[in-house]
Amino acid sequence: MQLAKRLEKLGTETAFAVSAAASAWAAKGHRVYPFHLGDINIPTPQNIVEASLKAIRDGYTGYCPGAGIPALREVLAEDVGRKRGVQYSAANVAVQPGGKPVIGKFIMAVMNPGDEVLYPNPGYPIYESQIEYHGGVAVPYGYVQTGTGFALDMERIRSAITPATRVLIYNNYQNPTGAQSSRAEMEELARLAIEHNLWVLSDDAYYEMRYSGEPLSIVNLPGMQERTVILYTCSKRFAMTGWRCGAAIGPQPVIDAISKLNTNDESCTTHFIQHAMVEAIPGDTSGPDAILAELRRRRDAAVAGLNAIDGVCVHAPESTFYLFPNVTEIMRRKGFSDVNQLMTASLENSDVSFCTRKHFGRPVAGETNHYIRLAYSGIDVPSIQEGLARLKDYWEA
Questions:
Q1: What is the distance, to the nearest Å, from the Cα of residue 112 to the centroid of all Cα atoms in its chain?
Q2: Residue among 210, 180, 232, 169 nearest 293 (CA)
Q3: Which of 58, 137, 203, 207 qualifies as a FRET site for 216, CA 20 to 30 Å off?
């Protein structure tokens, strides 16, 4: 018996493979410093836990509308719209079991087989996987390193657009680089989307994980709200990665299509969790504020620890919980030609586990520098300091 050939085009989230390797190393009796997975080891705020338990006791454990319960759709429309300076209604919201399902459903709703889709690379690997699985042509664009971090490679984006380009996937406050667009950069991206009549997926998973200043949204720019779907997730802001609650927010025709896909795929998002989020999203912000404050402390410790290593320089990102240092000099010093060799050797010699650039999309032709990604969301400050001191000892040996 054979499986469907289309499965050959389906990728995966390869960071979980790194997690398996780290678990195997820990099973041998080693202490592992987990910088590899973007999970959050901070408790979900107690008001959300209590609201969820109350919803269970009140009997919200059965089916509910595929698009989400009306109360949550209304809360999301108000909250997301107000924070981005636009107006949405409940009809513009389709609740999802997490943010990730928005990617595949959006692609199914707007992309035909053979259409080209621009996506960030390095970037979240599920973009590439879903585009190709559904018969699209995945066209990568990247980033350029600047004196303060990373910026979009706008020239590559411009040159990659063809008459077959249908969709642009845009992840401001980006995983894995931590890149954030200036207003001028965002305006140029919007101009290109309008000029070439592109659908836009704005992956806003880290929109509210910003340590200072106000976040910018591309939907706020003229002509963009009617062509953009926002990927919203509760996972990051509320430390709810395993709860699986998110939403697609955008023009009603594509939201109606996504809601229809909900009914086909999973019927609905867990009923009692939706009721908990009705309270959490517009409610007490002390929980999310405390989460962000703790992540800031971890960021500062991780940046200091990496910059103490000879041959490494990394800037403190103003958003997300990732660092993406250039390790080309470390590779040269240690005699490695493949960055995954550095990853494995670092685990075995320092007990520090991290992902590499290769876990965030297929490397494109012409890449000469080597990068790794460290997530500081699942490791506390003392462990960050101890782990990076061990990494420094190995890398400088």
A1: 24
A2: 210
A3: 137
